[in-house]
Amino acid sequence: MGGNSPCASCKLLRRRCAKDCTFAPYFPSHEPQKFAIVHKVFGASNVSKMLQELPIHQRADAVSSLVYEANARLLKQKYFASKCKMNK
Ligand SMILES: [Zn+2]
Questions:
Q1: How remote is the CA of residue 66 from the centroid of ligand 1, in Å?
Q2: Which one-letter DSSP state was computed for residue 40?
Q3: Fewest CB atoms less than 10 Å from the CB: which of 11, 29, 72, 73?
Q4: Calpha distance 84→67 (Å, rounded)
Q5: How far is the CA of 72 from the centre of ligand 1 (A)?
């Protein structure tokens, strides 16, 4: 990875993106919403911990299921929130 643009996670958390950044391979800077959503649902530190515990070849799969899960949860929240509004 070249250039000096931080990955999506370091950008959002306003830290310097290290060369060995755990997030960089899975959360590229051109897909900021991908990290934003897992950060919102699971929290960046949990995601980071989880990635570090996994062997590298399993990380990509884990990230895509996290993104999937986070999207599903947010959709559910939105759905219930709109239902609540309707009942009022
Ligand atoms: Zn980074």
A1: 17
A2: H
A3: 72
A4: 26
A5: 25
Tens of pLDDT, residue by residue over 73-87, are: 999 999 988 988 777
CA–CA separation, 83 vs 20, rounded Å? Answer: 44
pLDDT in tens, 3-31: 568 999 999 999 999 999 999 999 999 99
For 26, other C-beta atoms within 10 Å of its C-beta total 23
Ligand 1 centre from 77 Cα, in Å?
29
43-69 as b/e: b if 16+ CB within 10 A: ebeebbeebeeeeeeebeebbeebbee
Instruction: List, for residues 37-57, the tens digit of each pLDDT value.
Output: 999 999 999 999 999 999 999
Say how far apart CA 30 and CA 60 lie, in whole Å.
17
